[in-house]
Design goal:
324 residues, Farnesyl Diphosphate Synthase, two-stranded antiparallel sheet
Amino acid sequence: MYTFEELQDLVRERMAKQNFIDVPEKLFEPIDYILEDGGKRLRPTLLLMATNLYKDDIEKSIIPAIGVEIFHNYTLLHDDVMDDADIRRGRPTVHKKWDKNVAILSGDAAAITAYMYLVTCEDKYLRSAISTFNNVAMDVCKGQQYDMEFETRMDVTVEEYVHMIYLKTAALIAGSLKLGAAFGDASEKEQDMLYDFGKYLGIAFQLQDDHLDAYGDVKTFGKKIGGDIISNKKTFLLISAMKLAKGEQKERLLAQINATDFNEEDKIKTVTEIYNELGIEKLVKEEIVKYIDKSIEILNDINVSEDRKVILLEMVTILKDRIY
């Protein structure tokens, strides 16, 4: 059995050996740029962990796992364009370093590259792997569309928001685990259980991202703190605040949301103060724990020996411990 760190290092090592540059070089340089910076490599590591639940030999899962990571970075690249984000992992986003046209086209090339890596899996898995990946890719697009629609709506519910982040964020985590289980020759039932495990885990991760955007440290978060507040992004925090705020609090919150000429630091400070008054941080932490507990419940029911599940359980437990 591998540890999480061993699999993470293996992904990084194999990715470092890949040559993502082709001609014309200007098409592929941004792909190399977004991939060289690293990140946690969570999704490919989870794919390998799922394979390792069922078999010791994970070698044939590594290249498809890298494909998942390429696809993830493609979604971030396009997401940054849509959000006009300045920073990703502490560095300028692709459309800021180059321009939007470069980011869009290189993102398209990255998505195609991801499929090229995925289809290196063994032939016996190919059809189901492509089907799973296609479903995930479509879910990500659906989630992004909902996210854009939410920008102009003031009546988004927490339930709608959770469904959106499941599609946009959690589906790829869930799909990575399902792919890894398939490559490990797990039963369809177990593949689906690992998908659900990943779904709840992914929702928890995104809720934690929401929390860190308001309460995190830019040095560890890798993105500008308060970016969601500045852009009036419908996160769990803002949706909950809109529901709970009354009277003068609601007026102050709406004034910040509707302002067109404002000082960014003042807006972040004011909205965060309203969140604190309403106990929003406590609410989001409770929501994160709820979905972590759902994922642990599913993991406990997966029919493999406890020693093989231990690294997945440890990872989820660490996430839970970091909430408080």
